[in-house]
Amino acid sequence: MIFIYKTVLFAESQILSFSVVGDIMNHDLQIQTAYNKQCDCWDYRFSFEKVKPYLEKADVTIGNLETTLPGDKNKFSGYPKFGAPDELVDALKWSGFDILTLANNHSADKGYDAIIRTRLIVEKKGIIPLGTFYNEEHQQKNSIVIYNKNNFKIALLNFTYGTNGIPVPNPAKINEIDLNFIRDQIHKAKENNPDIIIVLFHYGTEYKTKPDIYQQYLVKIALKEGVDIVLGGHPHVLQPFELLTIKDKYGMKKERLIVWSLGNFVSNQKRINTTGGMIFQFQLIKQNNHIKITNLDYIPVFVDFNQRHYILPINDYIYLSLKKEKNKKLYGLVNWNKKKYHIYFKNNEVKNKFKMISFFRNAIKILQIMPRQMEIR
């Protein structure tokens, strides 16, 4: 059996837009700064306020929830065993998330009860959970999610490389990467005749800005089996994306999208390249039952810590100029396509300006493309 989510359609459309982000983490300092003494509660909406317009505008918004929801405040903690207040998911729903992947290396951090409760709470808040299950029967029925929206039928699957050596407690199940299991799940997804199959992998080498051999091998197999889009997470840094024409084992030759790693969306990590990530955007266009993946773009985001963690869409705070501007403070240069761009801030709202600029420069270098929405004067 396959679990099917249906969305009420008010009018048919031939376009489906996506915003996809990486790891949503919740370190100790994030828990502390989201706490409100007056209500003895937590509120994370401030973190997502600036990116909310980009998230809620998309038809489908997806992220990786890299924490459990244990319910007991005594179990709230950051690294190495994550447990967050439910209010984090309230903020994600408020900011526009439709789907959250739960299969990652921190899924089993707080034991069986937290695995079960995390999925229950995410679903209760109105977000579709992927990758974790109450038991084997539940996994068999719900591992493949079919999402219907705007006259598109999307099959979604989520797998993780492991759970940090913590055994998954019975009877809970987490979709772990096993080649035979993955092939079987993709085959079952195809039997439902979706327009597109999307696989979300939690894999790779942490802090490495290029996909490792393991990632490349796994993605090659997934695409050969008929997957159309692969979205990756776990390295905590950005890795490139590409649209490639690939023939699968069924003889279908078409363009397929790979986003090797989406990086961090929010965290308290401070290593180079971990202080942000991107909102990756793309569209599916259906013409005469032919699906085209198009309009690829990304918005680099930076986590600016100013007593709290604020996710800032970099495009909204800086602009590039081909000429040096008088009476404006220059914050650096970036070379792109044999042109030299001067970097300026639009306002003074960013506290850690030079850290943001450093992240932005590195993002362009890693992704090897300038964001189309970046303002150039």
Number of domains: 1
Structural class: alpha/beta
Number of helices: 9
Please identify, by name, the CATH architecture: 4-Layer Sandwich
Superfamily (CATH H level) name: Metallo-dependent phosphatases
Largest sheet: 8 strands, mixed
Distance between the termini: 54 Å
Radius of gyration, in Å, reads 20 Å
Low-confidence stretches: none
The CATH topology turns out to be Purple Acid Phosphatase, chain A, domain 2
CATH C-level class: Alpha Beta
Give the overall silhouette: globular
Number of strands: 22
Task: Write down the overall mean pLDDT.
Answer: 96
Strand content: 25-35%
Q: What share of residues is helical?
A: 10-25%
Overview of the molecule:
There is one protein chain. The chain is α/β, with parallel strands linked by helices. The termini are far apart. The model has no long low-confidence stretch (mean pLDDT 96). It has one domain: Purple Acid Phosphatase, chain A, domain 2 (4-Layer Sandwich). The strands form five sheets. Strands 2, 5, 6, 7, 16, 17, 18 and 19 form an eight-stranded mixed beta sheet that branches. It has nine helices and 22 strands. Strand 17 and strand 18 form a beta hairpin. Helices cover 23% and strands 35% of the residues.
Strand and helix layout:
Blueprint lengths: L2 E4 L8 E10 L3 H7 E2 L4 E2 L2 H4 L3 H6 L2 E6 L21 H9 L3 E3 L10 H13 L3 E3 L1 E2 L2 H7 L2 E5 L2 E9 L12 E2 L4 H13 L4 E7 L10 H12 L4 E5 L4 E10 L5 E10 L1 E3 L9 E12 L2 E16 L3 E5 L4 E4 L11 E4 L2 E7 L7 H15 L10
Parallel strand pairs: 1-9, 2-5, 2-16, 5-6, 6-7, 10-12, 12-13, 13-15
Antiparallel strand pairs: 2-17, 3-4, 8-11, 9-10, 14-15, 17-18, 18-19, 20-22, 21-22
